[in-house]
């Protein structure tokens, strides 16, 4: 029999664990955990769900397949020199003029002003000096206006790119990952946790007695209090001193030398 259960890749298990933690903090589940009656606790649910990750994640399989497909596709290949030139030509002359106009107008205006003031200093009566100064001032004004237009264009471009920051390969991948995590939490984890909340936990093995057996054939000796022959009465209640009798001695017989 072919196993058709989808399997989470190893690099996606942290996302599963993160979604599991979020589901365990969900208000619907925490309220059910606070309800009276026998049921699993959060730690038991987490342990059980972690061991069945592939089965639990099956309802979010469409989103997971789209996410992994985008991730496996990888980023697009960088453009070659010919492609970059074609893209620059296709962009039009307006961006080029926006950049070049302030530079050319500003530098030309400065040159005209320098020449005009030099001519005015040498021959103030010549009308050429006044014309050169006027042309230089006009060029500087044109360059300043072009610079202002370029700055406004850059700001508008930045705002447009920020508003569409989720588009493109990287944005599509991030969005696919987010959709999978939402489906994993809402369609897979939460229904499973609520359905398995009242499942009996696996029985724990009985604790072993903390005893150490003695060596084989060994038993503690029994002690009994002495009886009438010891230091107590026969009933074992009233102690009394043991009775001792001294050994019998008799004086040795001595005989005189006459009796030998």
Characterize the structure shown.
Keywords: Membrane, Transmembrane, Transmembrane helix. The protein is mostly helical and 260 residues long. Among the domains are: 10-76 and 186-195, no CATH class; 93-172. Helix content is 58%, strand content 0%. It has helices at residues 13-24, 27-34, 42-51, 53-56, 61-73, 81-90, 94-122, 127-163, 168-195. The longest helix is centred in the middle third of the chain and has 37 residues, at 127-163. The radius of gyration is 51 Å and the shape is rod-shaped. The N and C termini lie far apart (124 Å).
Outline type: rod-shaped
Category from helices, strands and their pairing: mainly alpha
**Helix fraction bin:** 55-70%
Evaluate the radius of gyration.
Answer: 51 Å
Low-confidence stretches: 218-225, 227-232
Largest sheet: none
Average pLDDT works out at 75
Write down the secondary-structure element order. HHHHHHHHH
Strand runs, count? 0
**In DSSP terms, counting alpha (H) and pi (I) runs of 4 or more, how many helices?**
9
Strand content: under 5%
N- to C-terminal distance: 124 Å
Q: What are the SSEs and their pairings?
A:
Elements: H1 13-24, H2 27-34, H3 42-51, H4 53-56, H5 61-73, H6 81-90, H7 94-122, H8 127-163, H9 168-195
Please describe the structure with a list of short key phrases separated by commas or semicolons:
mainly alpha, transmembrane helix, 260 residues, Transmembrane protein
